[in-house]
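Why does residue order matter? Because the sequence determines the fold. Keep that principle in mind as you read this record.
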Amino acid sequence: MRILVTDGMDKGALAKLREHGHDVVEQFYEPEELGKALRDFDAVVVRSKTKVRANHIDEAKGGKLKLIIRGGVGVDNIDVKYAEENGITVRNTPNASSQSVAECAMAHMFACARYISVAGSTMRADLWEKKSYAKGIELLGKTLGIVGFGRIGAHLGVMAKAIGMDVIATRSSRTSGADEATGIPYVTLDELLKKSDFISLHAPALPGGPLVNADTISKMKDGVCIINTSRGGNVDEAALLAALESGKVRAAGLDVWAEEPSKNHALYSHPMVSCTPHIGAQTVEAQKRIGAEVVEIIDSFK
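Structure:
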């Protein structure tokens, strides 16, 4: 197969593809150039940066393209239904990065609880503000609400329970009972918003707009901490910033942004925001697993 890799890939996996006889091209294309380029490839491997939309698929018609692979969990940067209606298979690597993203969410929870981000920043500015950060909180005994209880949410829930947090979850297909593997109970979204000290988002971006907005924030506990390692569109950034300024939201841990690279300086420079540039899946282990899954998908594709 002739394969286009647009957003980078583990070097070992690239070497393996070439060893298996595939012709691999590593190149990023701007949106206006992507569709035409896809005509010359049997498969394309993307991450988060490249978006394969209906217009790209239309431009690729009559060419070789028959497989789109998203190296990661979600596929909302691909128009999956339209691709499949046009005879193009869409696959992803749902297992490869789940643990890494869950650990990133947990790291942001600790940072929010203990001022780790801002305290470190002030030390690098040659300040010693120990008294300013003397009101940290423990995670032990706090309630974590997980919105979107798939693979990543389940990994986070298990870790949170292990350090003594109470964990509840919500997902669109369940409003009661408990997850069979973890024992974590399902609740309605309103109940989760009302009860949670920490809320972590692990749902795909939905057409109804941001999950965290002025209305949902008003239903949350005072002093809640909000974590987002899912999709930037799940948070209304203006509403979150207003809630941080008012103190309604104690802190936020954000790995994903409405626009990437983010230009929302007021939000990412806020002292109560722990911020990272979409690195949830960027671990050595996850990249190797993603690469291995991509190789397996391509080698087994018929």
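The CA atoms of residues 31 and 129 lie 46 Å apart.
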